[in-house]
User: Fold these one by one.
Assistant:
Number 1:
Amino acid sequence: MMAALALFETMFVPSRLVHLSSVDIAIIAFYFVLVLAIGFYLKSRANTAEDFFMAGREMTAWIAGLSFLSANLGSLELMGWAAAAYQYGILATHWYWIGAIPAMLFLGLVMMPFYYISKTHSVPGYLKLRFGESSRTLSSVSFAFMTVLMSGINMYSMALVMKVVLGWDIHFSIWVSSITVAVYVALGGLRSAIFNEVLQFILIWAGALLIPILGLIEAGGWSNLKLQIAHNASSEYTHLWSTLGTSTGNPMGIHWTGIVFGLGFVISFGYWTTDFLVVQRVLTAKDLRAAKMAPIIGAAFKMMVPFIVILPGLLALAVLPFKLVGETQAVATGGHSYNEVLPLMLARYCGPGLLGLGITALIAGFMSGMAGNVSAFTTVWTYDIYRALIKKDGSDQHYVNMGRWCTIVGVLISVGTAYLVMSFASIMDYVQALFSFFIAPLFGTVVLGMLWKRATSAGGFLGLLAGTLSSIGMWAWVKVDPSAIRYVAMSPSATDMAANMYRALWSWIVCVLVTVAVSYVTTPKTDAELNGLVYGVTVMPHEEQVAFYHRPVFWAIVVSIVFVILNLLLW
Amino acid sequence: MHGSGISIWFFIGVSLLVNGVLITGAGIWQVFNPPANPVVLFYLHANVWWGAVLAVIGLLYCFKFAPGRQS
């Protein structure tokens, strides 16, 4: 053990934000041992394709729900939104509340029955059933490659964080984390990814919850915190809605229409209801009620995440004795950047042991996001590309073997992307933009497919294509002529974040308009062909009679009420 | 995930128990050997009580979801 610790120490470089003790390193090492042990333990339960790719479809609502949320709760998400809270104030909370909760409830109550009843293995698989092979090919190819590239970008970003925070060698971070994820996902398949995501979810809370608790004690409670933020920054930083009347009246430069329609409707619904990375977790539920409950459980916990992400950013505005600055200025002046706010707060309150748990939470968040990307990539590649286009008649064992190899190849492509980004940083912006091109139009295609039986195969495919191309077109237009942002985002002072939201909104509208127009001039499928796929022509399975407090709709109402109250309290 | 192998909640219990014991141990050691540069609010000894909370929850989960005890 001491030799291992000594080896660990040699990986450090002198400059670092926090210093780990032996207890901290033991906690981190124990985490790696445990996730690998889970992978080895679950190997014997990943023998069939249904086991490997769909975790046997036997997950309870709690496990599917926590995993659904955990796959999204990457450490870059934690650190990035804590930084955004320091920079923009409580407005960052919109990405957790209106930017998630309505969409998650909609997924559970409206969309999940169709995903679940159709017994599809993936979102592109649903498109195949509803609109045909061309729509599936377009969405699966774009999703598979964008997912694995995004995984590489996250890997590089996390390695960079570990270098800044702990002084770890960047190659060491990339290879240790990627090999660990590759081993436990390749061995145990989606079940192993889900088990580890639930473990990681608990560790994230255990490691991060103490920061807001101690921070509020130091700040003297919420009222004093608001007063200190008003003194150090501005009172606008603690209002959720009242500053959004104009795009110049808030730190983010955004109008409420962008938040409600761009973020709350298109981006949020696009991500939470059609991004297979998160939807895959819910598809593993053991029955329809569990499948409907899982996103609702996820929504309840999502509503609480700002407590461990946004609140530390706000607390930093009040209690840190120095001011954080942008990345460029931080490099030039040797100061601390916004992005370091979470580790800084961790180091402020957490002594030996707690610091190790906090760093473990960051590593766990990163690995759950990476495992989510890799397992989703593996399923889409194997089912929607390899089996659909390359080898249609393979045995069950053949596809399991393909899944295992694909996991390793997916991780290697991610590592390759990480090294590419290391050499050409601008690639990161391009790949992130590429990913955003597909999400909003895909939501238009899927939601029309589920709710409108007149939508035809040609309409679905051409709508998806037109929406995607329009998104690319708008992005390129602003790149070539930055003043075009006044048309795309309806304000010359709009930030990139605001531009993303409006671009998503327009591309979704284009997708819907084209789908509707083309559908009216082409022949729809018969009602019989659409059974199990579309609202109105699907015979819903009879749900078991349970008490009202076991019903998904009851808990969706509870979550909705809490959601409204929280927004009003922080108006 | 009950009835066919070890529950995920058991693994979580083990994780919380081990981490809780390590954190509490480090906290108690610091009570008797205060560091030269203590963290903010050091006097609250957060690692002692937070570690203890994690250890107790972990122990309960280990007991409740122990292999062989699941229904």
Note: Residues 76 and 154 of chain A are 7 Å apart (CA to CA).
Number 2:
Amino acid sequence: MFDFIIYLTYFILLADFILYTYSFFREKKANVFFVCYLGFCCLMQFSMEVMYHYRMNNLFLVNIFIIGQMIVLGLFYDSLFSLKSQKKFVKISLLVALLILGIQFVMDWNQFLRFNLFEITLTSVLVVVFALIHFYNMLTETRKYYYFNIGVVFYLLTSTVLFLIGNLTHNLSKEFKFLSWELNAVLLVLYYSIILYEWKFSFAPKKRKIN
Amino acid sequence: MKLNSLPEKEIVAIILYTSLFFMIVAVVLIVFFYFSRKKIIQKELEKKDLILQYQKEQLHAVIFTQEEERKRIAQDLHDDISSKLNIVSLNSHLLTAPNLTEAETTEITENIINLTTKALENSRKIAHNLLPPVFEKFGLNAGVEELCEEFESSKSVKTHYKNEIDFDENDIDRHLHVFRILQELMNNSLRHGKATEIWISFVKEEGVNICNYEDNGIGFDNSNADNQKGLGMKNIDSRISFLGGTINITSEVNNGIVVNFTF
């Protein structure tokens, strides 16, 4: 059952990636950073799965994923914003965050091999702030990536807590060890489904428009 | 349970970071809410300002047209009636002059009679222009019929008028607006559109009175903003809002104009 959910997330993610890539190349409508984000997610999931099968410690990939997600989504929101001050805010906060994280990793390399609480909090908060700024912009303008934005806020708020307690789950008994990750998988299914719905809403060829 | 093997420091850090995360998110959400509210209120204010400005413009148009109408009436009175009455008065003074021959007296009297007849006719015409008696006595249908006849006879336009509604006489105040709108449209068609044929029809659809108006004039470019709101159009707009109806104007260059409005 658990495996099924995990493979379902892979399947939906792959479908998302293919559909958005299709819209990007055929109609030049999908945002380039968004396609990059989906591709990045695919790559990460795939390499994690591979490392899992070779019984390697793939925890550092989580760190790469979290930081990469912040960078790509930051660039994505940067491209959506039109106000100069907002663009500046995104760029500066991204740079500052990367700088702080870089210093942290230089000082203590071991942080890379476990759930880095500071990093998780910082990146999630930044992406949530970007998403909320986008919500604020959409109050009076046309809705762009509206459902995806809802998905980001929803998924990040819940999954961040799961990542934060990640180090705790190491030491739980076998029975409960994977409970939080099962929950995370279910959340991912929802998240990727929302992205799929976003595609259907904004990019799917509309046939029934002619009434 | 192997939970105890985890250093206490770690657990405290997890708790701290989790609460910190939620605190920051809560603050961000509150700020978000605050700014959103501000933005929405500002948008609403802008909307109200726009409505106010629109109303002001309408009022302006009403006052302006009133003045124009007064000027027109004053001119009509001055040109058609005062001048004639002046000559009548002069002629009457001539009559009082001594030593007039019989022939002269008859000529002067004839003059006076002719002029007064003309002045009478003109005053009737002016009054008629202001408010057609047919409309007042027999209602909108007869009024529009007469309007069409007038345009056909005097201005070489072919009109096609069709009515499927039985108008209620108690609604004459509202019908006057409809009549004025049609008058304005027809004048526009003639003056600006150079139309040679005009179609007017009243239909009732699902309890709503609809008037369809069409001409074959030169029309105008609908997308051009300059064409949107002339004074006449503003006048029509405010009449439509009096009637609580809707108006839809479509036109293309060289393809005439189509106007549908409800009342």
Note: The radius of gyration of chain B is 34 Å.
